């Protein structure tokens, strides 16, 4: 079971998490808990990093003091056993002391140092939750991802667990299950040379799935602050419904293009072992949530969900030499790959003197620089960009082989007078993705949700 930041945001929520865990433990279920940092802590650590980059050490230490005070106050409110309080306060002192030392010594701000800095949130929350379980008569031991055996590559900030993690996690975690509930820090691993690494966006979910795969769990439960995967963003469409059952592939498509509950890579380890993933709400634990499984379940109406990814940017490579000249696209893709930039969508045409690429907005400046360097010989005429775009994705396994879906999608956009800038459909036919101007995103979501009557679907198992 993985609990996100809002699930452990304060003493009351940690008590709730401990109670939910105890219920499973008392039922005779072997439980491993993966925990995120308390909500807001990761943002504070990012701020600390920014202050240290700008040599504002006092501001960094002020934030460290806030983090220390919050975790110590939480421990005092959370625990009734004085020995446990003293133990946790001692651990917090030790971890905060390490953080202060890092802040004093971190003059050269490299990726490895930033991962080390970002690890402190989970390292502070895990002792609190483990102690809360012990306070509820549930034996527990907390471990960092490194201690649990999560070995990764050295891609700092978005590290990927290596296959050898499976053996190490089994050796570290399975013996503990015989007598306790292990509480493991999400988001954190370590490289082969022992450096702390972080798994990037969706990192704690990725940790849970990686650990679940290694110990061959029966199910992986992701506890969050929503009722599961929804048909669309409820902040835009209040009538959005919970998807009771969805396939791995559909969940990955929705997540890749903007559904924020899961990151697509977090499901990959579960897929390898065909482990069901259930997404549940810590605030409404009685609700069944969303079950993510291998097999697709076609539903009447074909489409299951509509998502939007706003943090993207469009890059256009233009020039008459593009037409009929081999290797231009390959050179562009190679330049971006060398710069470690992921291409989200691609659009080319046999008679169009333009290649259009969609990248993550945070990578835009690096993408432009990489392409300008690659084509400095004037092979192309210009490189333009537009960060004011979003990508809309319509997803459903029933779309495969069902005629007329694309027509309905684009007719709905036409009726709303929304211009489609770029289109992509995968060969699986599980999704249709297209790019619109950012200010038209909400209108597109509302229109498609209504067109496919997603507020009327019955997704019960």
From TrEMBL:
It holds the Pfam family ACT_9. It comes from the Archaea. It is an enzyme of class 2 (transferase). Residues 317-385, 394-461 form the ACT domain. The keyword Lipid biosynthesis does not apply. One of its GO terms (cellular component) is cytosol. It catalyses: L-aspartate + ATP = 4-phospho-L-aspartate + ADP. CDD domains: ACT_AK-like_2 (cd04892), ACT_AKi-HSDH-ThrA-like_1 (cd04921). Pathway: Amino-acid biosynthesis; L-methionine biosynthesis via de novo pathway; L-homoserine from L-aspartate: step 1/3; Amino-acid biosynthesis; L-threonine biosynthesis; L-threonine from L-aspartate: step 1/5; Amino-acid biosynthesis; L-lysine biosynthesis via DAP pathway; (S)-tetrahydrodipicolinate from L-aspartate: step 1/4. Gene3D superfamilies: 3.30.70.260, Acetylglutamate kinase-like, VC0802-like. One of its GO terms (biological process) is lysine biosynthetic process via diaminopimelate. Its EC number is 2.7.2.4. The keyword ATP-binding applies. Belongs to the aspartokinase family. This is Aspartokinase. One of its GO terms (molecular function) is aspartate kinase activity. It comes from Methanonatronarchaeum thermophilum. Keywords: Amino-acid biosynthesis, ATP-binding, Kinase, Nucleotide-binding, Transferase.
